[in-house]
Design the sequence.
């Protein structure tokens, strides 16, 4: 199916003077389930000299996309391209990796592991001030305390703000007021930092990291994607504590 579809696109492109897709991807639903605004990615493995790439659907409409883990050896490009897709039960969709046109036509996605937002669509954002980093899309905002610069010397963990503080359903009010709890001996933090590790039109990721005086660590990543109504929080730690 993919092979025949790719040939068809190549014939149409030849007739109308448009270059064929650099690579074609297929997304197929097998579980008889309806999916909405799901974050998906496809492996890029192509031969191209193009410096700016975009993703389109089977009708040629440009989609928000984001590139990660890109590596180039000569003309050989590998990595991943991300987008958000919806699927009806037992349906399938095709996506095309194509050269990016001018900014007036569609979003160019420079090969810098980021991407560019589509003009006229609701965007994904990361904003920050001296106290907070805020991840937001059209449904949800997550407010994280900025840890960088808070620790000037050994500091009791419970004196630091929690990795994430509150959320908002874009109503203007913030819900929640998270805080650390520790029923055991004090845990002293010697380093703490907040870092935006990925920022693009499809997903944003912020990492909260701290190191205790004994060298043990805690890390949390908070990811928010375009069009999704929940954030993904992943924690990793080797700290031994009662709570």
Sequence:
């Amino acid at each position: 199916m993919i092979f025949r579809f790719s040939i068809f696109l190549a014939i149409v492109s030849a007739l109308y003077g448009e270059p064929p897709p650099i690579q074609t991807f297929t997304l197929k639903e097998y579980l008889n389930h309806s999916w909405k605004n799901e974050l998906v990615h496809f492996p890029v493995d192509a031969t191209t000299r193009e410096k700016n790439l975009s993703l389109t659907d089977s009708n040629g409409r440009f989609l928000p996309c984001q590139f990660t883990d890109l590596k180039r050896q000569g003309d050989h490009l590998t990595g991943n391209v991300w987008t958000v897709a919806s699927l009806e039960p037992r349906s399938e969709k095709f996506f095309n990796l194509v050269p990016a046109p001018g900014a007036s036509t569609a979003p160019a996605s420079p090969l810098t592991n980021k991407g560019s937002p589509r003009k006229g669509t609701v965007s994904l954002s990361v904003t920050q001030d001296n106290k907070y980093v805020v991840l937001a899309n059209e449904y949800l905002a997550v407010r994280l305390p900025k840890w960088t610069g808070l620790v000037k010397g050994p500091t009791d963990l419970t004196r630091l703000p929690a990795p994430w503080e509150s959320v908002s359903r874009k109503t203007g009010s913030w819900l929640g007021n998270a805080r650390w709890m520790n029923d055991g001996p004090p845990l002293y933090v010697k380093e703490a930092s907040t870092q935006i590790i990925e920022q693009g039109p499809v997903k944003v990721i912020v990492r909260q990291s701290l190191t205790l005086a004994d060298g043990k660590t805690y890390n949390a990543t908070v990811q928010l994607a375009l069009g999704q109504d929940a954030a993904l929080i992943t924690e990793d730690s080797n700290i031994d504590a009662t709570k």
Remarks:
- The first strand starts at residue 23 and ends at 28.
- The chain has one helix and 18 strands.
- Residues 45 and 78 are 5 Å apart (CA to CA).
- Confidence is low (pLDDT under 50) at residues 1-16, 102-121.
